[in-house]
Amino acid sequence: METGKKNIRKITKEELSEYLLQADEKKFRTQQIWDWLWVNHAGTFEEMTNLSNSLRQKLSQDFIFPSVKIDHVQISKDGTMKSSFLLHDGNKVEGVLIPTGTRQTACISSQAGCSLNCKFCATGYLERQRNLDFDEIYDEVCLINKQSLESAGKRLTNIVYMGMGEPLLNYQHVMKSIERITSPDGLAMSPRRITLSTSGISKMIKKLGDDKVRFNLALSLHAPNDKQRSQIMPINDKNNIQSLIEALNYFYQQTKNEITFEYILFKDFNDSFKEADELIKLYRQVPVKVINLIEYNPIEQAHYEKPSMEKIKAFEEYLTKHRVNARLRISRGKDIDAACGQLANKG
Ligand code: SAH
Ligand code: SF4
């Protein structure tokens, strides 16, 4: 990439306005360009067709405009669409469009790779390369939104930060991407339709509370006690379950936003009624709206298995019998490695 020039999407609207003033351009150009950048999602200056040729040229001399490109797309039998996105420095991340009933959900990545090494997750076996910048995360959303419009004639209804990476380890850029997604000067989506999933970093969950965010939070719990959780999620050593419970209660106190527990069922590991009892105890200590029971999607690198459907159903019924709001989530896009935890830049 050329150096010395600013990225046009890293400057503020005020800076853009100042620049245009210096260049002797009319005032309304600021909004026009801003709309191209954030509402109409142009990928190049050439696409900004209501600007004069000379202004377009001047912009391309003075700024760089790196944007995310789609490398390739795979479509599953169930309609799930997985895209491999190419970043300006050659790194790749994946994003998924999941059409279900009336919903069009985008699952997006916040980091290239992940540093947290959860034992059951394909992304965890990749090295963490780098954090994504907010404009890159925003590009993912816009590109998937375009796919949604083209394939179903509908805009995205929901966004989940459940692709590659740990969003709370890329806090500033994730927050800024959400600001763009929810801004009337952006995609104007409601924050209630956005869910951030975290493997559980207590300090950052509290920070979400302090920042009074308005989106929903999902905790990847996956085991109901520290001993078992640390076996599959090394992050638990420094962020144990008690600290997560405190952080989630603080988050709820500050925001009143929805909290979800995610619980992958692993055969003969966390699928017995003993673990269900422990899970119920945790559920009672946090204002959790729902526990999502997630089917384990086998990955090459790990030896876990998913329980039989009878066992899964029995676990779910046991929770329900104890007045726990639990629901079973069957992953989509398995045939193209697009399901939870399978994103590893393979296809
Ligand atoms: N880093 C964040 C968000 C990305 S992972 C987090 O860990 O929450 C998104 C979800 O997929 C998490 O709940 C994660 O635990 C789950 N997941 C990872 N590997 C999986 C697998 N093999 N099968 C099913 N779910 C998986
Ligand atoms: Fe990273 Fe989440 Fe995968 Fe764990 S589950 S390795 S935190 S992406």
Detail the topology: elements first, then pairings.
Blueprint: E1 6-7, H1 13-22, H2 29-38, H3 53-62, E2 63-64, E3 69-75, E4 81-86, E5 92-100, E6 103-107, E7 111-112, E8 130-131, H4 134-152, E9 158-161, H5 171-182, E10 194-198, H6 202-210, E11 216-220, H7 226-232, H8 241-255, E12 259-265, H9 273-285, E13 290-295, H10 309-321, E14 326-329
Parallel strand pairs: 1-2, 6-9, 9-10, 10-11, 11-12, 12-13, 13-14
Antiparallel strand pairs: 3-4, 4-5, 5-6, 7-8
Helix pairs in contact: 1-2, 4-5, 6-8
S-adenosyl-L-homocysteine binds near residues 198, 264 and 296.
Write a structural description.
- By secondary structure, the chain is an alpha/beta fold.
- The chain has 2 domains: 6-64, DNA polymerase, domain 1, CATH 1.10.150.530; 69-336, Alpha-Beta Barrel (TIM Barrel).
- Helices cover 34% and strands 19% of the residues.
- It has 10 helices and 14 strands.
- It has helices spanning 13-22, 29-38, 53-62, 134-152, 171-182, 202-210, 226-232, 241-255, 273-285, 309-321, and strands at 6-7, 63-64, 69-75, 81-86, 92-100, 103-107, 111-112, 130-131, 158-161, 194-198, 216-220, 259-265, 290-295, 326-329.
- The strands form 3 sheets. It has a 10-stranded mixed β-sheet with strand order 3-4-5-6-9-10-11-12-13-14, covered by helices on one side. Strands 1-2 form a two-stranded parallel ribbon.
- 41% of the residues are buried.
- Iron/sulfur cluster (SF4) binds next to loops.
- The site of iron/sulfur cluster has 12 residues, from loops.
